[in-house]
């Protein structure tokens, strides 16, 4: 015998919630930006008009762009920049370690070196190296080399010492700041594990300090490239000297100076790109997600509409 049990009636289904209207965002109008853009465009147009109306032979610039003398001066500029930075970086690291030494003699020598080379202009230092023959008439390294100072101190060597030794004083302070940025607990932990002071610097401190050292070092490389134009004072054949010689011989002096400026801009642009990727490399441990590079942003913009269309 079966008994029917009445089931309670199911409540009626609730109507679906009303969809909110899409928000129509109205961007804020920045009238100041438009005014500033118009002012900048106007000033730029006036500047272009002034240069176009000037008595400048613009056709001479591309004609002499790859002139053999200009390219030789450019190579010498890049070469002296590279060698001077190598001397500056190596000697700067040594001076930074000496400056932090507990030995009073070592730290005092490093402090005096930095004080002298940072306190005198590099232009003056170039002249001092060039005229040290008044003090040292001969350079005598008994079993190796002996010659008169005027023959020994060539324009290349004078430029190299003047730029490299001056740069070492600035790199010493940059390296010292990077080393001080590393927490002292890292050094104490390394010493507790039995690592020597030198090994602690190489394996623990310096790799972490590079994140602080690299950005100002990149700026110093770019600055060295431009500062190398001062070596014209000691008769070293660089880009500026080449531009002046070509301009004097061909009668287009101002045009060759503009050409030299263009080559400096090209070189500094390449160095700036290298600095960007080097900073990005050493920033891997400090940021969970690195910002996209310009090429990655461009690729994302180009691929954005295609992805959106495929998803639709």
From TrEMBL:
Domain of life, per lineage: Bacteria
Localisation per UniProt entry: Cell membrane
Bilayer topology term: Multi-pass membrane protein
InterPro entries: AA_ABC_Transporter_Permease, AA_ABC_transptr_permease_3TM, MetI-like, MetI-like_sf
Broad class of where this protein is predominantly found: membrane
SUPFAM superfamilies listed in its UniProt record: MetI-like
The entry's keywords: Cell membrane, Membrane, Transmembrane, Transmembrane helix, Transport
Domain ABC transmembrane type-1: 74-275
Annotated PROSITE patterns: ABC_TM1
Membrane spanning stretches: 34-58, 78-98, 110-130, 256-278
Assembly and binders: The HisPMQJ complex is composed of two ATP-binding proteins (HisP), two transmembrane proteins (HisM and HisQ) and a solute-binding protein (HisJ). The HisPMQ-ArgT complex is composed of two ATP-binding proteins (HisP), two transmembrane proteins (HisM and HisQ) and a solute-binding protein (ArgT).
Protein name (database record): Histidine/lysine/arginine/ornithine transport system permease protein HisM
């Amino acid at each position: 015998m079966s008994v029917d049990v009445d089931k309670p009636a199911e409540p009626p289904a609730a109507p679906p919630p009303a969809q909110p209207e899409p928000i129509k965002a109205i961007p804020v109008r920045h009238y100041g930006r438009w005014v500033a853009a118009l002012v900048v465009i106007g000033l730029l147009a006036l500047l272009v008009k002034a240069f176009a109306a000037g008595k400048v032979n613009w056709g001479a610039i591309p004609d002499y762009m790859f002139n053999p003398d200009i390219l030789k001066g450019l190579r010498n500029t890049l070469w002296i920049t590279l060698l001077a930075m190598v001397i500056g970086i190596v000697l700067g690291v040594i001076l930074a370690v000496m400056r932090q030494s507990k030995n009073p003699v070592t730290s005092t020598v490093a402090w005096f070196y930095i004080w002298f080379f940072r306190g005198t202009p590099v232009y003056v230092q170039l002249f001092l190296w060039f005229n040290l023959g008044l003090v040292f008439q001969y350079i005598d390294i008994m079993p190796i080399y002996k010659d008169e100072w005027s023959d020994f101190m060539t324009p290349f060597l004078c430029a190299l010492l003047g730029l490299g030794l001056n740069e070492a004083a600035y790199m010493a302070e940059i390296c010292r700041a990077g080393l001080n940025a590393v927490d002292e607990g890292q050094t104490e932990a390394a010493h507790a594990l039995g690592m020597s002071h030198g090994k602690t610097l190489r394996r623990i401190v310096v790799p972490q300090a590079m994140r602080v050292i690299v950005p100002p070092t990149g700026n110093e490389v770019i600055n060295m490239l431009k500062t190398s134009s001062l070596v014209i004072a000691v008769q070293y054949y660089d880009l500026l000297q080449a531009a002046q010689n070509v301009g004097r011989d061909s009668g287009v002096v101002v045009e060759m100076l503009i050409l030299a400026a263009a080559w400096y801009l090209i070189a500094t642009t390449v160095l700036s790109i290298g600095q960007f990727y080097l900073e990005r490399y050493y920033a891997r441990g400090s940021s969970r997600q690195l910002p996209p590079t310009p090429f990655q942003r461009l690729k994302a913009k180009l691929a954005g509409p295609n992805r959106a269309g495929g998803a639709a």
